[in-house]
Amino acid sequence: MNKVQHRIFKAFYFLITSFVLVAPALYNRYPLMYFDSGAYMEMALNFEPSFHRALGYPLLIRLTGLLVTNWPLIIIQGLVLSILIYKIIQPIVAKSKLNWIHFASVVILSFSSAISWYAAQLMPDIWTLILVLAVAGLIINRGLSSSWLWFYGILQFFALLTHLSHIPLMFLLLISIGALWLISNKQLFRISKKYWIALITPFLLAAITVPSFNSSFGYGFRFSLASNAFITANLGEMGVLKMYLDENCDQLNSGLCDIKDELPLETSGYLWDSDSPVQTHPEGWAGANEEYAVIVKDFMSKPRYMKWFVFSAIKATVKQMFQIEIGSGLQYAYGEGSSPYWPMKSHFKQELNEYLVSVQNKGDKLPLDFFRIVNYLSLVLSILIIGWAVLQRKLSTELAALLVLFLLAYILNASITGVLANVYERLQVRLLPLIQFFAILVFIKLVRPKISATER
Fold first, then answer.
1. d(C-alpha 456, C-alpha 443), whole Å
2. Other C-beta atoms within 10 Å of 222: how many?
């Protein structure tokens, strides 16, 4: 097989594995939808700053589907995941068995973890996993060419733009990796200068792009346009907002004081319900965000409220880490009158019928219950495999580095989303496949040493 034929075969192979990774969309006959999918499609058209959406995913919808179809982005999500899995497996598998092991890994992950249910959705959550796997690819691979470093850098940049939680997640990951790199005398994470550049540069570019985009529309040079509203809503769900209002409403000019004895129990009651404080605020999201700034400032600066916040944040982080149920929001049909329906009807009308007759829109027809059970069983098996390797001290330096990275990402994601948004399975399950994937890596490297790279 000459070089051209090899490249054609490789391209076809990755295309096939991308279809495996987005199998739920193919089964559904259209990309899976979530309530927020409509807002991302709408933003793809007007492409203006949103008070509760990041700019990256609408940009990807616009660039890949040209406001005609949503399928290309779904296929790209599967393709990127397949390539990243391939590159992470590559250093620990004999070249002669690489394709077989990669294909088996893709199939196992697709049918026993949450990865396909996120890759097949028109939502940015899969890009959290893509971001972490891109960092993992840089950590485990040695001697990458300039083209691969560019690939990882561009991938990280777009991933960082797709969700408001990704920039703080990457910031904390870089700080943590850097600290461990120094503490271990550069042994745990063997990252060269050019690899550090490939990690840090996309982060800096994204950290400049997001506030610059907001500033260009007159919203000021800031990352989030509604951080105060989200944090205040979560303080309400945590149960500490009511106590704060009881103590401060005498001098606090806030509409929340008028309803302090009837506050919503969950964040949705503050942010999304039609009669919520944010939705009914005279000045909308901007006004609510400005009004709640003083509340957030008090919780971040006054010792009495900082104590409440810290303990509530720890509890929220731990709770978020155990949100492991797949299929959040996918059990609903999004037919006429739903959030995704309107942009489908106005902007993606070529696919409206295809969307309306999808399995999901027939109502509770997706086999979510079965795959939830499979996910639970695979998690138990994965934890046993990983626990065995750790207790037996069988992890190589490379696998130890990946385990630390995956744990850091999982915990930091739980902290960021659980504290700044709310405790919700969709925001945590997006990184749950890291557990099954790492168990596969342990199995490849340790349980079946015959397929390790020592055969080369």
1. 18
2. 11
Which one-letter amino acid corresponds to residue 125?
D
Q: Cα separation of 72 and 418, whole Å?
A: 31
Q: Which of 404, 397, 407 has its CA nearest to residue 445?
A: 397
H-type alpha helices, 91-226: 98-112, 115-119, 126-140, 146-161, 166-183, 193-216
Closest CA relative to residue 136, chosen from 388, 347, 394, 398? 398
**CB-side neighbour CA atoms (13 Å) of 150:** 3
What is residue 421's predicted lDDT score, i.e. its pLDDT? 87
Cα 70 from Cα 73, distance rounded (Å): 6
Distance from the Cα of residue 293 to its chain's centroid: 27
Percent of the chain with pLDDT over 70: 98
Domain boundaries, the chain: 3-222+324-418+434-455, 227-320
User: Which of the residues in the chain have pLDDT under 50?
Assistant: 450-456
Q: What is the pLDDT of residue 449?
A: 54
